[in-house]
Amino acid sequence: MRIITTLCLALSLVSGSDILCPDGTTMCRNGGTCELVNIPNQVGDYICDCINAFNEDSIYEGAECGHEHTDTCGITSIEEAALSRAFCTNNGKCVVVDG
To answer: What is the C-alpha to C-alpha distance for residues 35 and 42, in angstroms, rounded to an integer?
Structure first.
């Protein structure tokens, strides 16, 4: 029974547009991609690149590309907001800063 439970958990973690990076520990969600870290003392570690972590309804950011956008800074196209990185997550709101 334990083997079946473990298998079911593993399958539910890697579904849809979620991927497990080659290090076996980093999970990139919602279309995010695995990127190998090129930093001393972290060789072989992976991070998630969230530039493509969006769909027709939502944009995602964060360590695993799991935080959904809460504001698109006045841009009506989700794709345009995602590609220009003009959005906020975690209930953040866009503000105009004069400078």
So the answer is: 12
Q: How many CA atoms lie within 13 A of 81 on its CB side?
A: 24
Residues shown for the chain: 99
CA atoms within 13 A on the CB side of 37: 13
Per-residue model confidence as pLDDT tens for the chain (99 residues): 433 333 333 333 444 589 999 989 999 999 999 999 877 776 678 999 999 999 989 999 999 999 999 999 888 898 998 888 888 998 988 888 876
State both tokens at 71: 């504001």
Return d(Cα 19, Cα 83) in angstroms, integer.
21
> Which of 16, 19, 15, 29 has the alpha carbon at shortest distance from 68?
29
Q: What region, left, alpha or beta, does residue 35 occupy, with left being phi > 0 and alpha being psi -120 to 50 degrees?
A: beta
Residue 2, pLDDT score = 39
